Backbone:
């Protein structure tokens, strides 16, 4: 059974140049396209489920025509506090720099509003709940039932065998004959394209948890009224063991290798124009953009690939060495401690924490092609009560500096004595001639 369709869309994870404002006011001289759709007389909530780590956009689908600005409200699902609180400041605008969005933190530090839409950066399971688009007078226009699922199962896809296929068919027959109150299933998205070309790469697909039942709450709107995500508020409280179980999203990885597609050479007219403008070659390889980043050591660092969206295939390399998710899964299976360097489910490269040896050049791939080069420098940050001499690398650095100073002093002395010797020999020769 396919998952219910949802109207929310995704935005790029790495926005470098655009500051985000916390509220938006429509120009009065422009046509208000949001006023074309009438708001429902009875507030309902659109169910939407996503994998943790992505950036989610929730558009305000409707509002009265006289409303020029919107306010977003949030309520936790079945939490200790059922109070609906505003996420926006009613007075003035606050700016949010997406480059400084923490990998984990309070919801208020990871959201923004643009064109009436609510953006949640690097959403996590704690961000699940009810989101309502309304006004400063607490008039509610449109609502969402957001379910952020964490990938509890990361696996390398095995090949299907006749025995496993027959087992699955028997399980389906058993579930169909029993007809329980609800059925839990995983809805997988299509496999992504190979994340690299010309070298071995990987393909990823995401499976989200859904529940099928005829006893779901009617106030939560879905394309199929008998299907909702496992963390949705539409699931009755009687199914409480469903949310407390180990059921969750799945992330599967498999290996792939494809050849790079060669682009057609430019036409003779373009070559002639480029030659006229002074360019030596119009067919040379286009260089990827280069970004520079400095980060203090012993702090969590999250790198995002410029232009990436959650439905894209993203890969990371350190220099010429690929970073594979399958190796990360193997490390998790062999060791109880999580790896310090990993690729999270939102396609970010995460350092937990970053160390000075992590400095270097990193490349990210988008849809099988290199998209950016990030030159990272991790520096030592000295806090209060710390001195330079307390750093473990201080003795080695001191030896290097003193050795370099001694070498330069020796070279300087050799040059001075050599020059003096040449002058003395020249003066002696002139005196002998006279």
Residues:
């Amino acid at each position: 059974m396919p998952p219910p369709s949802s109207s929310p869309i995704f935005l790029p994870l790495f926005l470098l140049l655009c500051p985000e404002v916390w509220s938006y006011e429509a120009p009065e001289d422009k046509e208000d396209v949001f006023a074309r759709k009438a708001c429902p007389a009875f507030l309902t909530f659109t169910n939407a489920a996503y994998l943790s780590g992505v950036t989610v956009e929730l558009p305000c689908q409707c509002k009265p025509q006289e409303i020029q600005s919107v306010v977003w409200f949030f309520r936790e699902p079945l939490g200790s506090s059922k109070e609906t609180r505003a996420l926006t400041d009613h007075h003035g605008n606050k700016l949010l720099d997406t480059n400084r969005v923490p990998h984990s933190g309070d919801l208020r530090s990871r959201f923004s509003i643009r064109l009436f839409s609510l953006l949640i950066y690097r959403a996590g399971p704690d961000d699940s709940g009810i989101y309502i688009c309304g006004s400063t007078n607490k008039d509610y226009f449109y609502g969402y039932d957001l379910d952020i699922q964490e990938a509890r199962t990361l696996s390398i896809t095995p090949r299907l065998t006749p025995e496993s296929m027959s087992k699955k068919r028997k399980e389906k027959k058993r579930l169909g004959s029993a007809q329980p109150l609800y059925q839990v299933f995983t809805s997988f998205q299509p496999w992504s394209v190979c994340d690299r070309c010309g070298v071995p790469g990987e393909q990823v697909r995401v499976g989200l948890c859904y529940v099928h039942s005829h006893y779901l709450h009617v106030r939560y709107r879905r394309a199929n009224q008998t299907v909702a995500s496992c963390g949705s508020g539409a699931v009755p409280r009687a199914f409480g063991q469903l949310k407390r179980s180990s059921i969750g999203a799945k992330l599967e990885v498999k290996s792939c290798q494809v050849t790079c597609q060669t682009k057609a050479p430019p036409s003779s007219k373009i070559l002639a124009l480029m030659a006229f403008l002074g360019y030596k070659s119009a067919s040379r390889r286009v260089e990827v953009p280069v970004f520079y980043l400095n980060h203090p050591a012993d702090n969590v660092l999250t790198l995002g690939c410029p232009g990436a969206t959650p439905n894209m295939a993203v890969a990371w390399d350190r220099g010429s060495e690929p970073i594979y998710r399958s190796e990360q899964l193997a490390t998790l299976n062999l060791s109880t401690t999580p790896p310090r360097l990993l690729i999270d489910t939102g396609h970010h490269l995460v350092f937990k924490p970053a160390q000075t040896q992590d400095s270097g050049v990193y490349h990210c791939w988008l849809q099988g092609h290199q998209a950016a080069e990030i030159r990272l420098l991790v520096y030592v940050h000295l806090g209060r009560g710390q001195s330079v001499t307390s750093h473990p690398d201080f003795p080695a650095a001191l030896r290097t500096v003193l050795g370099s100073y001694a070498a330069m002093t020796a070279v300087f002395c050799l040059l001075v004595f050599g020059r003096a010797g040449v002058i003395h020999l020249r003066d002696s020769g002139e005196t002998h001639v006279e």
